[in-house]
Design brief:
With 59 residues, this protein is mainly α. The protein has a domain at 31-59. It is built from two helices and no strands. The protein has helices spanning 11-29, 32-58.
């Protein structure tokens, strides 16, 4: 394993840190409605993709 130098981190470590910080920051700046809206949009998208897949199978 490579020796770590002070002040450096792996891409994986940086991603984990960014995710933690970013998630808290988003929660602080956006309310519950924000998460409900993006969850609903995601669900609608998945529903549409499933329907398109079923239609494609019937062809």
């Amino acid at each position: 394993m490579a020796e770590k130098k002070k002040g450096q981190m792996t891409v994986e470590e940086a991603g984990k840190r960014g995710g933690q910080k970013g998630g808290r920051r988003t929660a602080e700046t956006h309310g519950r409605e924000f998460y409900e809206e993006i969850g609903s949009k995601g669900g609608q998208r998945v529903r549409r993709l499933i329907q398109e897949g079923k239609e494609h199978e019937e062809e």
